[in-house]
Design goal:
With about 190 residues, the protein is mainly α. It has helices at about 5-15, 25-40, 45-55, 60-75, 80-105, 105-120, 130-140, 155-170, 175-185.
Length: about 190
């Protein structure tokens, strides 16, 4: 194991344990969070991300590169590969775009976003049947802990409200509504 990997693992263990963190540890975590937030919210990657990190924290390019690599490792699960990391970012960006186009009643862009989402999730590959379990795997397992990256948890009430809207718009039967709720992990009350 490389020394950099050992250092990373030791640092992660300190973050996860009850040990008091040093100021240096807190600074490193701040830089990792900045990298992660900049990639997701400001769409910064590559040299632009390195420069933003250098400018904000007055660090060397070598440290910036280590921070970017370590941030990726920290904010994704151990089993993931780089391709899945980027698929996760693309998915988040696409969902933000879908919400914006829906909120602005721009249904042409919304429909384009749906097609993009279809491609990001790989739903067009082969003759696989689409089922809720497949969507759950591809959408919700990108990160080991949603709170760690600042995602808000979706409450059962929010799921029920969304399903109620879909049911009204699509004129679904009570049985179809109950199935959607069950697939979303919510026990229907009716």
């Amino acid at each position: 194991m490389k020394q950099d990997d050992k250092t990373f693992l030791q640092l992660v263990e300190r973050f996860k344990s009850d040990q008091k963190l040093t100021e240096a540890d807190l600074n490193i975590m701040e830089r990792w969070k900045f990298v992660h937030d900049s990639q997701i919210n400001s769409f910064l990657v590559g040299k632009d991300l390195e420069q933003a990190l250098i400018d904000k924290f007055d660090i060397s390019i070598r440290t910036a590169r280590y921070d970017i690599a370590n941030s990726k490792k920290f904010f994704i699960t151990e089993e993931m590969i780089d391709k899945d990391y980027w698929r996760g970012l693309l998915l988040r960006w696409q969902l933000k775009g879908l919400k914006l186009s829906f909120d602005n009643n721009n249904f042409k862009e919304f429909n384009t976003g749906i097609r993009n989402l279809y491609m990001i999730l790989g739903l067009g590959k082969g003759d696989k049947n689409v089922n809720p379990k497949m969507l759950r795997q591809n959408v919700f397992n990108f990160y080991s802990d949603p709170k760690r990256i600042g995602l808000e948890e979706i409450t059962e009430a929010e799921i029920i409200e969304l399903v109620d809207e879909i049911t009204a718009e699509e004129k679904l039967t009570p049985e179809q509504k109950a199935k959607i709720l069950r697939d979303a992990g919510v026990q229907p009350n009716s």
